[in-house]
């Protein structure tokens, strides 16, 4: 199941047509002709220039802009300058190196570059906020041969832009940078909710972003904050239609993540409660969409989690029954040849379940 895309109308420049499940949840937009160059469509005496960020952070091409860290490929965060070569990176990124990744010079020390960081912060604050209607003739500018060009809005919407930068930073283990960008995104969405109310689109976006913040906190061992973000994510996702498979999948995953954190903290009853909530969400989903194999696999995984929690609290009979139910579900699941990835997952989960029963007689 592909994770819920919080900004389905947005595009991202670093996504190709072969995006794998689990990658950054921003969908790729339609490609423009000319290898990403601004495409002009002439109609009479006017031309339209596709949206373009002057620093290169647009949705049709991928390049590292002048405000990017060359290590994590995200916008600079806690900007730091190498001495003596003066190349600039995120502090967390360059701290892992003894030599400058760009020029190879020894890094004698690292100095904060507050002036450049201020420029980055101002750029983020203003990115994708300028709105210009292409039907407003006052905004047109004269171009060659007396033709008029109409500048559209920046196509990489602010929310998608911030999530894109956050995911690049997260993949490079620059978690504080990711948290900062996601925090700005969440703040923007909350502001819109205060203005227009809890629409499905905004609740979906905020739920997804809060889940990402939870992942960031979990990555650095901050279980308390992770639980808080996941619980808030569940709150917003629970307001949405249960008919949406992506929403229900993300909701169930957030519930399982809370359960995992409670489990590792030793609160087994609380963990079991969250696992059961996730299982119920997935059972409801499979009733509505019985022909979706990934839903069946999700139910089996949830049964395994609940069974493990049952066993941990001493309810061996209940655990035994749930393990058997999960095995029965997976053994009856028939997959098509093109669903090789799901088949591999099915076999892996099935092996785990049988081992659990064997180890406990």
From TrEMBL:
One of its GO terms (cellular component) is cytoplasm. Residues 1-43 are annotated as: Disordered. This is PROTEIN NCA1. Keywords: Metal-binding, Zinc, Zinc-finger. Residues 11-43 have a biased composition (Basic and acidic residues). Residues 69-103 form the RING-type domain. GO terms for molecular function: ubiquitin protein ligase activity; zinc ion binding. It comes from the Eukaryota. GO terms for biological process: protein ubiquitination.
């Amino acid at each position: 199941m592909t994770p819920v895309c919080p900004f389905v109308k947005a595009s991202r420049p670093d996504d190709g047509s072969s995006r794998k499940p689990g990658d950054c949840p921003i969908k790729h937009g339609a490609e423009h002709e000319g290898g990403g160059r601004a495409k002009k469509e002439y109609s009479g005496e006017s031309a339209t220039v596709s949206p373009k960020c002057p620093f290169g952070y647009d949705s049709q091409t991928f390049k590292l802009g002048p405000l990017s860290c060359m290590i994590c490929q995200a916008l600079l965060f806690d900007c730091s300058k190498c001495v003596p070569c003066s190349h600039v990176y995120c502090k967390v990124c360059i701290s892992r190196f003894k030599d400058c990744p760009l020029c190879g010079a020894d890094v004698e020390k690292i100095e904060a570059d507050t002036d450049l960081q201020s420029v980055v912060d101002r750029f983020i604050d203003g990115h994708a906020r300028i709105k210009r209607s292409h039907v407003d003739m006052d905004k047109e500018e004269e171009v060659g041969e007396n033709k008029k060009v109409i500048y559209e809005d920046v196509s990489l919407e602010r929310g998608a832009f911030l999530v894109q930068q956050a995911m690049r930073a997260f993949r490079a283990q620059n978690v504080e940078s990711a948290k900062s960008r996601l925090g700005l995104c969440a703040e923007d969405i909350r502001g819109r909710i205060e203005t227009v109310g809890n629409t499905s689109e905004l609740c979906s976006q905020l739920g997804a972003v809060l889940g990402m913040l939870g992942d960031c906190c979990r990555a650095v061992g901050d279980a308390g904050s992770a639980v808080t973000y996941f619980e808030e994510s569940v709150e917003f996702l629970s307001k949405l239609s249960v008919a949406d498979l992506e929403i229900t999948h993300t909701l169930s995953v957030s519930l399982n993540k809370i359960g995992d954190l409670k489990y590792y903290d030793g609160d087994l009853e609380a963990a079991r409660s969250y696992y059961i909530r996730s299982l119920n969400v997935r059972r409801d989903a499979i009733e509505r969409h019985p022909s979706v194999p990934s839903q069946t696999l999700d139910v089996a995984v949830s049964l395994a989690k609940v069974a493990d929690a049952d066993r941990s609290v001493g309810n061996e009979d209940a655990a035994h029954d749930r393990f058997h139910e999960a095995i029965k579900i997976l053994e009856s699941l028939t997959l098509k040849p093109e669903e090789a990835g799901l088949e591999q997952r099915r076999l892996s989960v099935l092996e785990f379940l049988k081992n659990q029963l064997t180890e406990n007689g």
